[in-house]
Amino acid sequence: MIDMKKRAARALLAVTFAAAAHGACAQSYPARPVTWVVPFAAGGPTDALARAMAERVARELGQPIIIDNAPGAGGTVGTAKASRAAADGYTMLVGHMGYMGAAPALYKKLAYDPVKDFAPVFRFPDTPLVLMVRKEHPAKDIGALVDFGKANPDKLFISNAGVGSSSHLIAALFAASAGIKISQVPYKGAGPALVDVIGGQVDGIFDQTNTALPQIKEAKARALAVTAKVRLPQLKDVPTLGETVLPGFEASTWYGIYAPKGTPQAVLDKVQQAYLKVMSDKAFTDRLAEQAIQMLPPEQYTGTALGKHTEAEVMRWKAVAAKANVSLD
Ligand code: MLT
Q1: Between β-strands 255-260 and 118-123, what pairing exists: parallel, antiparallel or unpaired?
Q2: How distant is the alpha carbon of residue 165 from its chain centre?
Q3: Which of 77, 155, 239, 300 is the most exposed place for a label (fewest CB within 10 A)?
Q4: What is the pLDDT of residues 91-109, one digit of tens each?
Q5: What is the C-alpha radius of gyration for the chain, rounded to an integer number of angstroms?
Q6: Is residue 254 helix, strand or coil?
Q7: d(CA 60, ligand 1 centre) in Å
Q8: pTM of structure
Q9: Please, which residues bridge with residue 12 across strands?
């Protein structure tokens, strides 16, 4: 009997110590720089948005956030790396619609599970995409591009950020819906993929607005359509795909920060609080809105909401991939 009491007391002590340790580590977190893994090449939309967010969230947390670009296989290489990191809050993943939503439907062998291996921390605002073509391309509008595609199957070379990236997925959905066959040209990120459109090596790309708008403003590439539901104030003369060749078509890239599963909840909560404070900074969100980044209702920014969204997206892309026969090449 005495033995049972001693053991219960010891167990209670252990739990108290663990909770205290957790509390303590959350209080002192972060005690050193934090790393965010970006699974695409530097200079692309994911990298640009992650660096803007990291700079602001770091100010709230009081420690630098370092961006670790780990590109490859549409983002699945960097994501696998993040899934193997220590669950101590010092390594987090910049997650994305492709490798955290669609990848389970596209890759037979995936080295991670977006839902089982990660703890959702918070969600970024969404970014719509622009279909851009090289300056010299004969298609002057979206209708002409679809006609060109119909007349020249597989001779429309569209660059993307790798299999399962949003630039790949949305180009595949566009082609399938428009009834044209395009040749997709993969890169390690939309950054290098866009450079080759501007250089004329490939015909076009679906790129996110935060990196597309500056190139369009400088007339380095031509915008033919946007994937947003309504026209963008920054591109008043550019139609939506929905109002032209693909009625009802709408797409944007969603993002979120994830931590390896097992990261203390108190640490996740602290990072989420820092982010929600950043998103209440109107000057900051206005700067994002200037890049046509779409703010969400605040309740959708939380880790809990991101978790539910991730599960729903994994299911949705399985259905999309089956129906649209999105191929892996
Ligand atoms: C994509 O999915 O196309 C990206 O967001 C690519 C990138 O950020 O480089």
Answers
A1: antiparallel
A2: 9
A3: 155
A4: 999 999 999 999 999 898 9
A5: 22
A6: coil
A7: 27
A8: 0.91
A9: none
pLDDT the model gives residue 322: 79
Among candidates 9, 319, 317, 323, which has minimal Cα distance to 163?
317
CA distance 99 to 107: 10
Which ligand 1 atom is the nearest neighbour of the CA of 74? 2
Question: Quick check: bond before 120 cis, omega within 30?
Answer: no
Distance 291 CA to ligand 1 centre (A): 15
DSSP assignment string, 218-235: TTSSEEEEE-SSS--GGG
- State if residue 167 touches ligand 1 by the CB under 6 angstroms criterion: yes
Query: Token pair of 238, please?
Result: 């550019």
Phi then psi for residue 267, to 5 deg, are -70, -45
Residues whose CB falls within 8 Å of the CB of residue 270, separated by 6 or more in sequence, listed in order? 26, 29, 61
Angstrom distance (rounded) from CA 219 to CA 236: 15
Read off the tokens for 122.
Answer: 């918070």
Rounded CA gap, 221 and 329, in Å?
25
- Cα of first residue to Cα of last residue in the chain, in angstroms, is 68
Query: How far apart, in whole angstroms, are the C-alpha atoms of residue 281 and residue 92?
Result: 23
Q: From edge to edge, which strands make up the β-sheet containing 65-69?
A: 65-69, 34-38, 91-96, 255-260, 118-123
